[in-house]
Amino acid sequence: MARKKIRECTAKSLLKKHHAFLPAAFGSVQITAETNWEQLIAQHPWLGTSRLVVKPDMLFGQRGKHDLVGLNLTAAEAEQFVKERVGRVITVENHGTNTSVTDAVTHFICERFVPHTEEYYLSIQSHREHTAIALSHKGGIHIEENWGLVREFQVEVGDVPVCPSDYDMVSLFGSAAIAEAVWTFVLESFRVFEKLDFTMMEFNPFVVIDDAGKLLCLPLDMRGELDDQAVFKNQKLWDGLDQFPRVFGHENSKEEDFIASLDAATGASLKLTLINPAGKIWLLVAGGGASVIFTDTVCDLGHSHDLGNYGEYSGNPSDDDTYQYTRTVLTLATRLDDVNPNKGRCLLIGGGIANFTDVKATFRGICKALLEFGEALRQAGFKIFVRRGGPNYEAALRMMKEIEAGIGVPIEVFGPETHMTRIVHLAVDYVDKY
Prior knowledge:
It catalyses: oxaloacetate + acetyl-CoA + ADP + phosphate = citrate + ATP + CoA. By secondary structure, the protein is of the alpha+beta class. 33% of the residues lie in helices and 26% in strands. Helix 10 (359-372) runs parallel beside helix 12 (393-402).
């Protein structure tokens, strides 16, 4: 499972289509520099009769800080607001990592302005063995300051949320009617979360409004992430979504674009994201689940700063698929220049125990690429760690060991008798020596 962020407008569109308890006022449209406002208002007449909110839809925070949020606007004012800001280049600070990213603002979301007094918070997030729900009667911009008021509880796989017996929603939310509306919203949002393979769904804030005499919850701000491994079964449910927006401040490298083009042309799955061009730990992992486990383990061992890439190959790729994929990863991994002067790098060729993928066939493509990059691997001080199981894995591991002398790079090889993440520990020990 790989968590992929989606735009707020996309998340709200999916919610509107599948959620059974949303007010009529819930709805949004996407705005870009190419938007024809006259046509847009004709398609969505409420834009011309409602007061509006306009804000960036670019997967970043601090929107108000950059004067990018317009409140209580007419359609004409909203159009002018966007025209004055679309294409603006801004820098967003990440105080947690003391870094920043710079990019242009290209997408906005426009929706109804909803006057309100109380703001609430809800998040649903999947974990390996359960789903976590966080709910609070004090949401909005001060949620972090009020995190002590957030009630968190777990939902086991296959279960539905049950309100904790000691969580007095009536007194916290002010009335039995509001508490009932909020809990109905929690249950229905959880159902949509599960049905559409969301991995994260956050509403901060959501409000409760009167909708034709019935109290219903209306999300004002929403964040969503989907499991991209579920694309194959959710094309209709996701309204054809199969490409995810790039992260703000991240321009795809030519290598990432190349793998994306290969992925689109093959029946297999080939994914590549460049994380750190100066990384010392590089991944060549079979399977979406295994790729997450390998990445998490590198981070858990305190080496997230050394991780060069994230990605996976799966779905029984051909020899040529794995050859092209491997040589692309190696092109990034073996750079020895001002961008990445570090020596003492490692390559993890790993995965679980395959069910139907011919491991020997995929390793033929990998070995072919490794032989081509022998000199570059030696110059960068590489060591290779391999762990794999599945059909023809013994022949595949022998093949890998046989090329060790040919490329002049040490290779440690392990089969299914060794725990999958053992090679991550070995790799971390290796890079720590440099």
